[in-house]
Structure formats: C-alpha cells, structure tokens
Design goal:
By secondary structure, the chain is of the alpha/beta class. It has helices at about 5-10, 20-30, 35-50, 50-65, 90-100, 120-125, 135-145, 160-170, 175-190, 210-225, 250-260, 265-285, 290-300, 305-315, 320-325, 350-360, 400-415, and strands spanning about 80-85, 105-110, 150, 195-200, 230-240, 245, 335-340, 345-350, 375-380, 385, 390-395, 415-420, 430. The protein folds into three domains: about 5-50, Transferase, Pyrimidine Nucleoside Phosphorylase, Chain C (Transferase, Pyrimidine Nucleoside Phosphorylase, Chain A, domain 3), CATH 1.20.970.10; about 70-155 and about 175-325, Nucleoside phosphorylase/phosphoribosyltransferase catalytic domain (Pyrimidine Nucleoside Phosphorylase, Chain A, domain 2, 3-Layer(aba) Sandwich); about 330-420, Pyrimidine nucleoside phosphorylase-like, C-terminal domain (Aldehyde Oxidoreductase, domain 3). The site of uracil has 6 residues, from helix 9.
Length: about 425
Amino acid sequence: MRMYDIIAKKKYGGELTKEEIDTFITGYTKGEIPDYQASALCMAICLKGMTDRETWLLTDAMMHSGDTVDLSVFGNLSVDKHSTGGVGDKVSPVVGPVVASLGCKMAKMSGRGLGHTGGTVDKLESIPGYRTEMNREEFFRCVDRNGMAILGQSGDLAPADKKLYALRDVTATVDCIPLIASSIMSKKLAAGAHNLVLDVKTGSGAFMKTVEDSIALAHAMVRIGRSAGRNVQALVTNMDVPLGTNVGNALEIEEAVRVVRGERKGDLYEVCMAICERLVSMSLEIPVEKARRMSEESIASGQAFESMKKWVAGQGGDVSVLEHPEKLRPQKEGRAVRATGDGYVCAMDTEAIGRAACVLGAGRMKKEDRIDLSAGLEVLKKTGDTVRTGDCLTVLYGSSEKDLDEAEWIYRSALRIGPKAVDRPTLIYASVSD
Ligand code: URA
C-alpha cells in the first residue's frame, strides 16, 4: 500500500480503512513515511474531515503506537480527568482528593505548562519534596493506598501523536476536530482509566474559541471513548475569564488547598464539583445527584482534606504547606494594579492574562525555559464586576521591576472596562454524554 494513494483517497473525500490508517501511523512512527507525506495527509483530513469510524481507527492506532497503562486491577473504580487547557486551571488537585476520599482510584499522568497555559506537574512541584517521577510499582502502590497519584508523563505513551502533533503545529493543521479529538484521546486511553471526564475549555483563554466548536470536539471525544469501551463524559466550560483567582504555580496550589479545605467556593469549586459528581457517579454506579451530595459532603466534613494529605505525603510532599497554605504565597509583597476610573469589567482577554503570568516567570514560552514557582498574579476583578477608581484589579508577583512593568501593561490591556453593566459569564455551557 502506497502513502501516495492514501493521501489521494482522502483528498477526494474517501473514507480511509483500518489498514490504510494503520499503514500511515505505523510507517510514520517508525520514520518510514516522511514528514511531507504525513503533512499532506493531515491537510487533506483538515479539508475533507473524517467519519466517526475513521476518527476512532486513527485514535486506536496512535494509542497502540507505544506503551499503555493497564489499570484493570482497580476494576471499575479507575478515574481520570482531562482539561484542554486554560489559565488558572487547578482542578486536578481538587478533584483528585475528593474522588479518592469516596473510593475512586485516580492514577493520573499530567503535563508541564507551555505558552499561556499552566501544567499540573509544574504546579505540584511547588509543594516541597513532592515527587513527580516514580516507577510503575510505586505509582500503583500509591494509588492503591491513597486513592490517587499524579505524576509527570513518563514512558512512551502515544509516540505517534507526539510526532504528529509537532508536525501539525508547524503545518497549520492543529485546528481540525478529528485530529484534535484523536490526539487527546489516544493519550488518555493509553493512560488506562475506565471512567474519564473531559473538561473542554472554551473562550479567549482556550485554544477552542467558540462554544459550537467546543461542543463538537466534546462529542467527537465522547464517541471515541464509547468505541474504546470506556465511560467518557465531557463538560464545556468557560475560559473567557481565568478559573478562580490565582494564576501561577504555588499560588494555584494555595487556592486548590483552600477549596479542598472548604474555605473557598465560586467558579473553581463549581467546575470541580461538576467533574467530581460525574466521575463518582460513573465509577460507583450511583445517581449523579447522590454523587454530588457525597462530593460536597467530602469537602464540608474534611474527608477530602484528609485524602489530600495522604496523597501528598505518599508522593513525598511536605504536608505542612497543606496545613498552612499561606506558606505557598510569595514571600515578598506584590504590585497592586489599580483602576484609574469607574465602570464595569465587560471582557477579559484571558490568553493575555496567561501571558502576563508568563512574563512574571510563572510559565515558559519554550520547553527549555526555567520557571519561577512563586511568580504569578491574583485576579481580583472579573467580567461582570463593578470597578471604582483605586480598586485593586490584580496583584502581580515577579522578581524584577522590568517584568512587573511589562506584565502590568499586558494586564491593563487585557481588561475592557466600560460604562455599562454586563452579566457574569456562563460557567458551564454544556454537558455531553453521547
Ligand atoms: N492538545 C492535544 O493534545 N492535541 C491537539 O491536537 C490539540 C491540543
């Protein structure tokens, strides 16, 4: 079978067979198919689309291009979540302890941040001693004993996707729903959980900018999950404003700890509860309303916080920062950025807010960049809020006046303050289960 014929078939809108898709993925992973042919096929897929069957076959081929994790020892209790990425997204360290306290098993592999979005592994490294690497036996032991573990991605999960994603990034073929859905799902399915909730972010801080595209992506991923025999549900949630208040690694862990301790509610708590209720309902096979009550009760009773301490201690982390989350706050005073007039926050460019955090040192623009775990910012006024002259819009934490000046400029430009009140944005746009 020639790669030329596979490209030509897709160019004319044909439906690729399993054999054709496997030939492409196997050949490309081994380096037998050159980048120029792989990029021609990706472009043809962008222009002609893929059926559900092709999308599933592509996912399956990429999932099996490398290692897979077998979580069958945990039966129906294995759970995972995935966010398509945003600003201030510290959902995993809240959801994990809640669902673990209720009997679920979360064996999670997470990534590092790149560009304006943060990564869970970087955030967790702000807990002194927390190990983001361990061997498979230790990983399984932690999950078994503590109900959860979160590690950095290791091994060789979906190498075909790694190679293809890098190629798509430079050939204008990222924004294509079958390619995005198969890319994300090949990694999540390889990671092995039976029950999965996907948080598809939508808006100015997300890579999916419209609700319609985000819902279409959510459906595509849920259908792939069904083809794989897994329980998958998706939420489409707002990323037109940062999630919660804190952006930056240690600051985000501080906020997550406060939510788990029952000290903070608001948008972060609501998104976490929406994910918890679905994971708990799917894995314990109980009605979603009951799963919601149990999740809320876990936080209110302190059960989730106990579970968080067990998890962090199990991975070598210093539990005193959970008992005293103020220890995670920057040691020096931040720069308060104040409003220069009266009005209402009408809109926020959330991607720019993520960039401001990056400039302060909280994120990396290139994979090799070093990050400052204590850097970041607090978002004190969000879309829908009233602003009076002198009100503090944000507090910035960085290490040089130059970075603070640049971040302040970016932050001010990212806020649109106008004379008319606007509604607070919708938090959860859709829930997708088929
Ligand atoms: N994230 C992924 O993992 N893959 C894509 O294609 C897009 C975003």
